[in-house]
Amino acid sequence: MRGSTIAGIGHYVPERVLTNAELERLIDTTDEWIVTRTGIRERRVAADDQASSDLGLEAAREAMADAGVRAEDLDLIIVGTATPDMLFPATACVLQDRLGAKRAGAFDLSAACSSWVYGVAVAHGYVSSGLAETVLVVGAETLSKITNWKDRSTCVLFGDSAGAVVVRPSEPGQGFLSFYLGADGGGAALISQPAGGSRLPASYETVERAQHTLHMNGREVYKFAVRIIPRAIEEAVSRAGLTLADVDLFIPHQANIRIIDAAAKRLGQPREKFFVNVERYGNTSSASVPVALYEAVRAGLIHRGDLAVLVAFGGGLTWGSTALRWTK
Ligand code: ACO
User: Fold this and answer.
1) 223 CA distance to ligand 1 centroid (A)?
2) Structural domain boundaries, residue 50
3) C-alpha 153 to ligand 1 mean position (Å)
4) How many structural domains compose the chain?
5) Helices in the chain by DSSP H: which ranges?
6) Any idea what the CATH number is for the domain that residue 166 is in?
7) Both 164 and 187 in a single domain?
8) Which pLDDT tens digit goes with each residue over 125-184?
9) Residue whose CA is closest, atom 14 of ligand 1?
10) pTM for this prediction
């Protein structure tokens, strides 16, 4: 089988910056609490008229320009999101139309914060098997739209952004070297948006109880994250036939600086090998890893031939990791 790689990458963050100081005025919290517990200083918030597809469209256009591909070259569009424009049709179909990607199939992928990593694993399967030549994988989120702005235990954590990549064929041994995807549905209740689906359809009561917003057991998710990130990183590295010492840069899901610190410590790896931008964006769910990868590349932290390990975890519970030999 041939390999697959990232041929182009793009990102988009909304203009509006929401600082911890502003949150201090909205809810009973402090900049000090947020920074020491999470590392987050500010996050981006989409405008009222911006949906996830609007963010995803900007990221997709940049990724396609970076890869030098046109809309008609796309065989498949995968959008990872926990905040689709609507339950259906898929946000990927909205993007397909707006890009004018007439030949492309399009679907959304739901694995919460792990969706984009799951998405590139699917794209790798299509491209390496020859089923597709060019796949667009987008992680696009507007968590601010499902945030309960009265719940201080969650509203300080999340932000809005989008990241996108174009996946194309590569030589074997280049690009994506391994994937590891996992799930534990037993932890489904730990992070959820309980209402609006078929289990709890929208009603006046569900709105009154704020059941259309994100609910989370932060402490349990924290324990899960600290356990799963090192395991997922080790698995991706060993499946690629490599060791941790071969890794140039780790790109973890940006949820909480303490989770990243703990993962580095457990793995015995220097913290400088972990890319961090959580202080500027908070947790942007499926967009978090591609936006971090984008910034790491643009900052010159990843060069052609370098090995990066990308790792995400999130609702489901889900997790996913990949070892990536950078080819651009
Ligand atoms: N400001 C001030 N105090 C607060 C705030 C706030 N914003 N939020 C909570 N507190 C209080 C709590 O009420 C609690 O007070 P109490 O002791 O009087 O009850 C106290 O702070 C400590 O609360 P904890 O929940 O124990 O705080 P903890 O140190 O565990 O940090 C946090 C909470 C930051 C949420 C942490 O648990 C965490 O990061 N968890 C992981 C979350 C995560 O990564 N989620 C993303 C998953 S991905 C996805 O799919 C969405």
Assistant:
1) 12
2) 3-172
3) 5
4) 2
5) 20-26, 31-38, 52-67, 91-99, 115-129, 152-155, 204-208, 218-239, 257-267, 278-281, 288-298
6) 3.40.47.10
7) no
8) 999 999 999 999 999 999 999 999 999 999 999 999 999 999 999 998 999 999 999 999
9) 153
10) 0.97
